[in-house]
């Protein structure tokens, strides 16, 4: 049931600190702050030359964020594909390498077909699923469950952040197994993960500000989302979320791609959501913001206190998220991104939990 919320989506957004916390506790030893996989992995990360990640929609964006983590922490190359492309492109795969599949429902037809293909090629198959009895879970060599609980809203929210938590812990485990992370690095990263539920709860505090902002967004025709590094796939997720529940056209772009085309769209009617925690690429994103501001675009900057102090640009609205370790910002910044889509849809009066033309689980290709 919806408890006291108007929609399942609102309830599921608000549940995130709790369910992401449950997921964390399954993958991390909270006492020693070390990673602890709930199952023994049937391969050694040292033997893996390439990881392939396959999923659809929001789950594919979780995979895209995880690519940055695996490559950074474990120095292992990662390829991310949407399942509908992966299943038919006959990608050359190496026997004994690792293929990861991400799915809330565990029943998505294209993801399942991709899993069967990887298996036929002799890869180890690992799935991150929310429904433990699902077909994808049954057919995978290893299952790493997300503990999001049932997700009813068609727009994925809590499943996404729980997927990120599992993938982050797995990437740390991979880095440790491959000798790329010292005990100290591991401790620092795991501590960063342990902080996530509390920071998510703090991020929910942006809701009144976002609700106000949504009244303006609801009047717009197009919205651009920009980010760099792990904030780039989150920009893609923000655009998808807005499209699917408010029916407003939105695009996510790597901030550095702005001047290669989309900047032509910028005028005073174009809101640009910039996802930019104060991290190693922050300065670069700020210069892209300057380009937007110079063309009259309305900037909505999602950053932290340091970022807000550094970004000297007149930005229309700044949403301040808590200070945190740079590695895991997508789990926290997902919250204002989801809230913005949600409140915009509420203002527009669309069917938030059951948007037109969409199914919760896409079991046909
Ligand atoms: O059940 P799955 O995670 O495999 O579903 C994948 C996509 O269909 C799903 O994430 C879809 O994009 C959502 N509507 C996004 O909010």
Automatic annotation (TrEMBL):
<dbReference type="GO" id="GO:0097367">
    <property type="term" value="F:carbohydrate derivative binding"/>
</dbReference>
<comment type="function">
    <text>Catalyzes the first step in hexosamine metabolism, converting fructose-6P into glucosamine-6P using glutamine as a nitrogen source.</text>
</comment>
<dbReference type="GO" id="GO:0005829">
    <property type="term" value="C:cytosol"/>
</dbReference>
<protein>
    <recommendedName>
        <fullName>Glutamine--fructose-6-phosphate aminotransferase [isomerizing]</fullName>
        <ecNumber>2.6.1.16</ecNumber>
    </recommendedName>
</protein>
<keyword id="KW-0808">Transferase</keyword>
<dbReference type="GO" id="GO:0005975">
    <property type="term" value="P:carbohydrate metabolic process"/>
</dbReference>
<feature type="domain" description="SIS">
    <location>
        <begin position="213"/>
        <end position="355"/>
    </location>
</feature>
<dbReference type="GO" id="GO:0004360">
    <property type="term" value="F:glutamine-fructose-6-phosphate transaminase (isomerizing) activity"/>
</dbReference>
<comment type="subunit">
    <text>Homodimer.</text>
</comment>
<dbReference type="GO" id="GO:0006002">
    <property type="term" value="P:fructose 6-phosphate metabolic process"/>
</dbReference>
<dbReference type="GO" id="GO:0006487">
    <property type="term" value="P:protein N-linked glycosylation"/>
</dbReference>
<keyword id="KW-0315">Glutamine amidotransferase</keyword>
<feature type="domain" description="SIS">
    <location>
        <begin position="41"/>
        <end position="180"/>
    </location>
</feature>
<feature type="active site" description="For Fru-6P isomerization activity">
    <location>
        <position position="360"/>
    </location>
</feature>
<keyword id="KW-0677">Repeat</keyword>
<keyword id="KW-0963">Cytoplasm</keyword>
<keyword id="KW-0032">Aminotransferase</keyword>
<dbReference type="GO" id="GO:0006047">
    <property type="term" value="P:UDP-N-acetylglucosamine metabolic process"/>
</dbReference>
């Amino acid at each position: 049931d919806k408890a006291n919320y108007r929609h399942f989506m609102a309830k599921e957004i608000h549940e995130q600190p709790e369910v992401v916390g449950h997921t964390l506790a399954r993958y991390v030893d909270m006492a020693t702050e070390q990673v602890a996989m709930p199952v023994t992995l049937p391969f050694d990360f040292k033997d893996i030359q390439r990881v392939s990640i396959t999923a659809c929609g929001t789950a594919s964006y979780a995979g895209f964020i995880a690519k940055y983590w695996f490559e950074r922490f474990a120095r292992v190359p990662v390829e991310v594909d949407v399942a509908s492309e992966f299943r038919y492109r006959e990608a050359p795969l190496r026997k004994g390498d690792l293929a990861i599949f991400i799915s809330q429902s565990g029943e998505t037809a294209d993801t399942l077909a991709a899993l069967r293909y990887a298996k036929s090629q002799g890869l180890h198959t690992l799935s991150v699923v929310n429904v433990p009895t699902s077909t994808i879970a049954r057919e995978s060599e290893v299952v790493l469950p997300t503990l999001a609980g049932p997700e009813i809203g068609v727009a994925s929210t809590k499943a996404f952040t729980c997927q990120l938590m599992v993938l982050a812990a797995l990437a740390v485990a991979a880095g440790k197994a491959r000798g790329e992370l010292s005990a100290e690095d591991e401790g620092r990263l795991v501590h960063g993960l342990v902080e996530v539920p509390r920071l998510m709860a703090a991020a929910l505090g942006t809701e009144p500000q976002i609700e106000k902002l949504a009244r303006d967004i609801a009047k717009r025709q197009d919205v651009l989302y920009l980010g760099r590094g792990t904030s780039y796939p989150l920009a893609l997720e923000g655009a998808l979320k807005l499209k699917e529940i408010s029916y407003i056209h939105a695009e996510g772009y790597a901030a550095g791609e702005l001047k290669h085309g989309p900047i032509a769209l910028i005028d005073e009617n174009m809101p640009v959501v910039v996802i930019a925690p104060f991290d190693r690429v922050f300065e670069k994103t700020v210069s892209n913001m300057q380009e937007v501001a110079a063309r009259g675009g309305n900037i909505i900057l999602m950053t932290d206190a340091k970022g807000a102090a550094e970004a000297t640009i007149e930005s229309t609205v700044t949403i301040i998220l808590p200070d945190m370790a740079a590695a895991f910002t997508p789990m926290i910044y997902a919250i204002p991104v989801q809230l913005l889509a949600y409140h915009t849809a509420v203002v527009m009066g669309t069917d938030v939990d059951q948007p037109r033309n969409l199914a919760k689980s896409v079991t046909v290709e």
